[in-house]
User: Fold PAZ domain-containing protein from Gossypium barbadense.
Amino acid sequence: MGLSLNIDVSARSFYEPILVSEFVAKHFRRTNLSKPLSDQDRIKVKKALKGVRVKLIYMNYAKTCKINGVSRDPISQLTFTLDDKRTNVSVVKYFREKYNVVLKYPSLPALQSGSEARPVYLPMEVFTLYQDDHVFVFFLFVTDSLV
Assistant:
């Protein structure tokens, strides 16, 4: 018996849309999304979702975005400047006022779209993974016995 390393690299196609928050809960074994992600989990989520397209569908409004990253801070702490260049607003308040959506998981980080200089913050719980995209999930298992 010796130390063995098993690397499971899997690519999945989505056959039915799934909310990003549900994807995180399912594939990263998170039972409580009301608690913040650890830095290690946040980095795993970022690697899995970078380059993936997500879609917001709200009433007659649809928006598709490409994920560039995941914020370090929880969405409850994130703010941005509106187009008028004077008004600073929290992401939580913006989604509540613009879409009448009260975020259930304000301690989760935000998905990031847009540029590094001007990121667009997207709540995981209101965006759906785009049906035809692929997500690569990397798992690393170290065991004490040879397989």
